[in-house]
Write a structure and sequence with these properties.
- The chain is built from 1 helix and 11 strands, in the order αβββββββββββ.
- With 181 residues, it is mainly beta.
- Strands 3, 5, 6, 8, 10 and 11 form a 6-stranded mixed β-sheet that branches. A 5-stranded antiparallel β-sheet has the order 1-2-4-9-7, with no helix packed on it.
- The longest helix has 21 residues, at 2-22.
């Protein structure tokens, strides 16, 4: 009797799984088109603005991670880091480079003596209320360094200098560097 009940339950679960994949639930159209959102991969304070359309009232940076591969001595690469001020007043941010607190699997911290490979063109950008500013970040591997086949990680860190209180939030863009073999 128990075996028969178990078999019937199993057949029922298999049938439900087949029907669920063969007949997906219809999607309901959105009553209003979504508002523009910050670029994907951003990090937010309080909420992730990419998850809530129209949320421009948070500070965020984008991209949250940059991968630079096949870097040889003397090579350089650059990218733009967008800093968004979601506050009600203009503010100044600091943009610095530091060792990673935790690295992505397969990467090691960029050694302290190599942190100068990463340069920021504006380390104290002033950003108006509800505005964004692009900051140029350049990664240069000196011609004198040999580190074949290494995978390094460093962080470009952005902090709102107008923060008060015991808790200070900083946002970080992970910079992953893979040197050529």
């Amino acid at each position: 009797m128990i075996n028969t009940c178990l078999k019937m339950a199993l057949v029922g679960m298999v049938l439900m799984a087949v029907l669920a994949t063969a007949c997906p639930a219809p999607s309901t159209p959105s009553p209003t088109p979504p508002s523009p959102t910050p670029p994907g991969g951003s990090i937010g304070i309080g909420v992730d603005p990419s998850k809530e359309p129209g949320r421009e009232d948070v500070n965020y940076i984008t991209p949250s991670m940059v991968e630079i591969g096949n870097v040889y001595p003397g090579d350089f690469a650059d990218f733009e880091l967008t800093v968004h001020n979601g506050g009600k007043k203009p503010t100044t941010f600091t943009v610095t480079v530091r060792s990673a607190d935790k690295t992505k699997a397969g990467y090691e911290k960029l050694p302290g003596e190599y942190l100068n490979w990463i340069r920021i063109d504006d380390t104290n950008p002033s950003v108006g209320s509800m505005e964004s500013k692009k900051v140029l970040v350049t990664v240069t591997m000196p011609a004198s360094v040999t580190a074949p086949g290494k995978r390094y990680e460093a962080w470009v860190v952005v902090k709102d200098m107008g923060q008060e209180g015991n808790v200070q939030i900083e946002l970080a863009c992970r910079v992953l560097i893979e040197t050529g073999a």
